[in-house]
Structures are given as structure tokens and as C-alpha cells.
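Form 7-S
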Amino acid sequence: MWNHHATRLSIELSVQEVDLGPANNTMESSPYGRGFIMKRTHALKFLNPILALLFLNQAVTGLLNEQIPYETYAMLHGYGAYLFILVAVTHIILNWNWIKASYFKR
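Output:
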């Protein structure tokens, strides 16, 4: 069954993350200035695909742990977990203003 509410929500979230319209490009939008916003956006464009690949690595190695050699599994799944946590925490830090605005409304 197609859930149009979930689809609409994901589209709205995507637009909010990407939209850097005139209101967001002012010096007042960030305590660090406009350059910080652009650097954060570029960092996320670099970080998000890496986060997705690390997630896929965890899923695939977790599902195929019986079919691949243990040494390979231990290296890919073990070190991949540490990298996934590091990149996920960095992703949360870079998106913290959006998280506060979306989930911690007064």
C-alpha cells in the first residue's frame, strides 16, 4: 500500500535540507557568516554519499557474514562500524541547527 503522507514528508525534508534561498544566505543566518554555510553544504555533499556507502557496507557484510572469509568480514564490518559511527556523528553535528528547528520546537 502506498503511503502518500510518508512520501510527502520526505520530499519536504529534502527541500528543507537543500534550500539555501536568500534568507539563508545572509550573514545573520549563521553566527559564523555565509562562508560557514557554504562549507557545511559542501561537507555534507561529500559526507552523505560516504555515509550511504558505509551503511550499505554494514548491511551487506552483516547479511553475508557466513559467505565471506572471517578475516574479510571482521575487517570490513568491524572497521566499517567505527567509520560509520564517526561519519554519522559528523553528519548530525553538521545538521544540528536543522534538527533543533525540526524536532525541538518551542
